[in-house]
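Researcher: I need the complex structure. Ligand is 4AD. Inputs:
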Amino acid sequence: MKVINIKDIKSNIGLEVKINGWIYNKRSSGRIVFLVLRDGTGFLQCVVEEDNVDVNTWNVVNCLSIESSVSLVGILVKHPKNEEIELKTKSILVIGSSKDYPITKKEHGPEFLFENRDLYLRSKTPWAILRIRDQIFRSITNFFYEEGFIRFDSPILQPTSCEDTTQLFEVKYYEEVMYLTQSGQLYLEAGIMSFGKAYDFGPVFRAEKSKTRNHLSEFWMMDAEMAFYDQEMNEDIQEKMVKRIIKDVLDNCELELNILERNTTILERCIKEQFIRIKHKEAKRICKEVLNIQNVVELDDMSTEEEIALGNYFQIPVFIEDYPMAVKSFYMKKYVDMDGVERAKNADLIAPEEGREIIGGSQREDDYEVLKAEIMKRNYPIEKYEWYLNIRKYGSVPHSGFGLGLERMVRWITGVHHIRETIPFPRTTIINKP
Ligand code: 4AD
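Model: Output:
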């Protein structure tokens, strides 16, 4: 007997096959029972007719409960009306029974679903979202391989802060204190002096108490770093990567996007059209004068409201460049603008459709003395940054890099409301179970 996966049903029409999986749904209509089988690769309607099976199989089908694991044997046929493929079931073997499965057809609130995340993972929506996540992960990996980057894994336990010091999780480490990483960037900067172009991909941690639908305490970050790249080249490669991710998802995840009822008009535009690049000063002007947002603070970070409004206004990703240095990290290359404001050579990439910031990147300060002065100005423990300063001591080069929050990217592409949907087991400001 040929054992197949649901994803391969098209090439097996007319054949008798065996499929292993779980009962996702069951509906009876007199002498016919309609089962929906899921096997991890897809969903398939399986029809069991009393007249076509033996008494034993009919009895098994009638007692079958949701999420029982089963082996079904039958013939794959095209539905006479809608051309969908279904299994004309001949026999059923129950592998593991499932009694009183807690997630039922009735609407459950998100609290209940996330308390039962281990089971909720089996439902269609998380299945579709996490498969798109997997596609995005693969696209990024392939992209960097093709662009000549090497994967360079940075440590999770770090003695210093990369971003804001108030966001650190402290860990007792033998007799010392260490911190869970916020980003591998500083280590990648050391790495590119050996490899030229490198990226990492792993979990990072932020202890900020943000309870928004865009913040996790543990998320997956992809940091990339490139020697001899200025900020313009940095934005070019980010744009190319984002376009590649979107194209791969549109090409390979049709079923998943359909399950999520994702309107892909803007995503399709994103592949064809150039992303917008505007200065922070101009972005603030648009927010105030064109979008009529109240309380726009010119020299501050972009607010949630401003990011969402700009995304809606442009309907395509927008790089917001040159933030005031006062709201950005110590390692960014800086300059003084015509108004005397110290600005960073950086850009945050804002996604449309309320995707908000998906990437943060900058050219890095490559001058030893300037960087040292910035670290001291911020009262960071200079002795802990000695190794990082060394990168500027021995053959310093202009270099740039960026960090993409995987879950932010998944949230935008899938169009889901809350970021906790985009990671298998989310960690937020509450203690999460499981
Ligand atoms: O802008 P951030 O803080 O930049 C860095 O950490 C740099 N060191 C990265 C680099 O240049 N290599 O974070 C980068 C991205 C953000 O654009 C966002 O997508 C994501 O990480 N991010 C979060 N995602 C989920 N939950 C949070 N709390 C996040 N904070 C940042």
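Model: Summary of the prediction. The pocket of 4AD is lined by residues 162-163, 182-183, 185, 206, 215-216, 219, 221, 223, 357-361, 401-405, 407-408 (CB under 6 Å).
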